[in-house]
Amino acid sequence: MSSRQSTRPDYFRVFLTFARNSLVRDMMFRTNFLIEAITSLSWAIMNVGFYWIVFEHTPSIGQDTGWGKYEFFVFLGTTWIINALVQAFFMPNCEEFSEMIRTGALDFALLKPIDTQFLVSFRKVHWSSLSNLLLGIGLLVLSLQELAHRPVQPWRLSASVCLLYPLYILCGVAILYSLMTCLAATSVWLGRNQTLYDFWFYITNFSRYPMEIYRRGWGIPLWFVFTFIIPVLLVVNVPARILAQPVSGKSGSEWPLAAFTVLAAAGSVLASRWVFRRALAAYRSASS
Amino acid sequence: MAIIEIENLTKTYRVYQKREGLVAAIRGLWHREYRDVYAVRGINLTVEQGEFVAFLGPNGAGKTTTLKLLSGVIYPTSGTARVMGFVPWERHNEYRRRFALVMGQKNQLWWDLPAQESYRLHQQIYRIPPEDFQRRLDELSELLRVRELLGRPVRELSLGERMKMELIAALLHAPDVLFLDEPTIGLDVVAQHNIQEFLKFYQRERRITILLTSHYMQDVEALCKRVVVINDGVIQFDGSLDEIVDSFSGYRVVRLHLAEGQSAEGLARLAEVESIELPRVTLRCPRGEVARVLARVLEDYRIVDLSVEDPPLEETIARLYENARGENRQSLAAATEA
Known about the structure:
Number of helices of chain B: 12
Shape of chain A: globular
Structural class of chain B: alpha/beta
Number of domains of chain A: 1
Strand content of chain B: 25-35%
Number of strands of chain B: 13
Distance between the termini of chain B: 41 Å
CATH class of the domain at 250-309 in chain B: Alpha Beta
Strand content of chain A: under 5%
Number of strands of chain A: 0
Largest sheet of chain B: 6 strands, mixed
Radius of gyration of chain B: 25 Å
Largest interface: A-B, 34 and 37 residues
Radius of gyration of chain A: 21 Å
Distance between the termini of chain A: 31 Å
Oligomer: heterodimer
Shape of chain B: globular
């Protein structure tokens, strides 16, 4: 019973150990690791090919939205970066959280003297998903070089963009993480939640396109719901817009939305903590 | 000093009452019937510092539920419990740093990694100083004789080896209270014995408080002076093993080795004969009658050797469970009539 002082765990070091253990584990099954990385890379390449074809037919998505080919590729790169981060850090953990609730393995997480949501959320890192992060960054670099030669308002790197883009990437990741945690936590009440992935796919599908698409006809209610209630539309749109700076008639309208995004990210994380706590209180644990 | 205090602790689960057949299943989509299942009903228990207590009971008696309540994994329906002054289900980190739970049926170590990687993680989470960590790990792996297995992936270990690794994981932060839920389940006799020896030694050295559930009487006999029998969520008995034997085995087993040529005829008139394999005869004899029966046997038969034993503990415990079940049924019936 030597030292009882400074017993608070060092969260960052715990996270590093999680990351390290995951890497050791991934390297043990290195063929699997390679196959996963190659699969997601080829998916990404097909994705970019598809949009390349789309832009053979039209110069931009919608008239006067400013989302031309390379602006959109910045958007796509941002989508990949955010998805890669979510898939590397949170997807396997949320999936496992749902499974831990069903099998009772959550018992062990509840015994540890550390924040349970932290423990459950960061336990594993899916390193192979980070291959798409590199690809996303590559796509950004190539597209931004093209945009630097844009006839109207050529793209310039500024200090504020360097600061804001990573910040809004983090906000986007936080929103998606919170949504995923809330979905996984429902397993406590449902006993089983196999539709987690489906539901996730349906919702995040909306986040993959510029929000201008929805600002027409019956898209408006969708736009409202996915901006203000389940704010998935903000996830990619806000950072992509900050970086690509599409030239449209309504320039400058992004700042209220950007301010709201910070609030939405903070609110989502708080909401996920609330749902998580409720789930732990209702946890029944499975039989011995 | 009482380290565990439980008062009127009750846990009920609301379960969906399924009915047979398709029509009923479809009706169940709208109209669900629930029923309350009592896992633990109003138990009271006090455990002193340094005690090694066994929880005995048939499957579904409420043993594991009690341990889960005391570990703060689940919330009770009513009642209170305090362990070292903490309310377990408030899940204070100070509390969680001072106890451990080992479950024979579940594992907490990373399956694909060597156990030592999981231990490093424990070191960080519990913030164990490096020198304490190394000393404890050396000591525990030495005692359990698994030092050379620390670097092998957990999935390649045998069940017994894995259990030892789980025990090390639970003890690295030097808990003051240890809950063991069937730690020897599925293990062979040797592994079971090793773990018993280890637990005995460790508990004696450290004077920690241990609550153990097990279905193996050998565990209980080897380790615990105090036994709590729980059945249908109620504590049926709380005392020493000897007391259980005294109060619940109504008879003793008398083994006779007859002299050569001596027939066993007539023994059945003295006591119930369990088996005859001449020259050996085994009798069952009500407790109060042992002396009278032995006197008659010695008088009428030529005997080479004899012994008087308690019946096997398993049998006694089974009788205790049966008794308890009967009583519960009676008290339930009385309650519904009233």
